[in-house]
User: Which sequence fits this backbone?
């Protein structure tokens, strides 16, 4: 008579054990899933910073094929495509990101950035217009300034550049862009001031140094400004200044600057030497 009770107790015990076993298995599975998420995140960071951009693209494409709804992986693919300079694909990737239910305003800024890199200025302008004014970041205002430049809306451009400069601790790059904007509209003195400010912020920025020479040359200022340069950089800047002088009609000054460039370069400065030879041949004729 005790057997049915005993069997019932055994069955109940077995079910309880099975329930415990199932619960423990689920806990273990969840733990491994958490570890995998952490591993994915770490690997994604590596792919975005240290890996070859095209390797990053391949990694995110492969991972997304298994987890297509993960927005962090979609972002990783879009960022990798930008790094790889595959701009048309990057635009499409960022468009998928901003259509995701968990998309952020920063994603929309990155979408506009991809459009600008792909030379789609009108679409970039519309994309920026979709971002609420409360999203105030350095990147957003830098892009706004660039779009305003492309539309020749100089007051808006200056305003956006000024805001962008105030939102970063490393303003050299945006100062250089702002200076180039001034240069393109013929405000050479304003451009010179901004390029000089950019160099004070980052004296390794050769583009700003070369732009400074262009701004000075346009004002017929042919003396080299005081700034930190390598011997090769100085030769290249003298060459730029020489060409600028020739363009202004100051041929003799330009020739002298080209000679200085050839003499200053630590190795043979073929481009400057060839320009000098061509100029002297034309004068002789």
Assistant:
């Amino acid at each position: 008579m005790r057997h049915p009770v005993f069997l019932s107790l055994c069955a109940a015990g077995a079910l309880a054990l099975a329930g415990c076993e199932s619960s423990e298995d689920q806990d273990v599975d969840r733990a491994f899933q958490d570890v995998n998420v952490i591993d994915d995140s770490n690997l994604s960071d590596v792919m975005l910073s240290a890996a070859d951009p095209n390797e990053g693209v391949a990694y995110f494409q492969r991972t997304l094929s298994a987890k297509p709804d993960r927005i962090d992986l979609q972002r990783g693919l879009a960022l990798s495509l930008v790094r790889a300079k595959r701009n048309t694909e990057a635009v499409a990737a960022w468009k998928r990101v901003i259509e995701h239910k968990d998309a952020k305003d920063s994603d929309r800024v990155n979408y506009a950035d991809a459009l600008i890199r792909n030379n789609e200025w009108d679409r970039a302008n519309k994309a920026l217009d979709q971002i609420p004014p409360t999203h105030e970041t350095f990147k957003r205002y830098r892009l706004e300034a660039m779009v305003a430049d492309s539309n020749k809306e100089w007051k808006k451009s200056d305003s956006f550049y000024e805001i962008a400069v105030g939102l970063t601790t490393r303003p050299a790059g945006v100062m250089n862009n702002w200076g180039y904007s001034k240069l393109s509209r013929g405000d050479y003195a304003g451009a010179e001031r901004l390029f000089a400010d950019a160099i004070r912020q980052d004296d390794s920025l050769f583009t700003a140094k070369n732009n400074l020479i262009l701004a000075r040359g346009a004002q017929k200022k042919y003396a080299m400004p005081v700034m930190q340069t390598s011997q090769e950089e100085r030769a290249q800047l003298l060459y730029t200044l020489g060409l600028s002088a020739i363009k202004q009609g100051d041929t003799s000054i330009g020739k002298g600057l080209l000679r200085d460039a050839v003499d200053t370069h630590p190795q043979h400065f073929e481009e400057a030497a060839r320009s000098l030879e061509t100029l002297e041949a034309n004068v002789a004729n």
Remarks:
- The domain at 26-103 is CATH 1.25.40 (Serine Threonine Protein Phosphatase 5, Tetratricopeptide repeat).
- Residues 1-22, 28-38 have pLDDT under 50 and may be disordered.
- The chain has 14 helices and no strands.
- The first helix runs from residue 2 to 49.
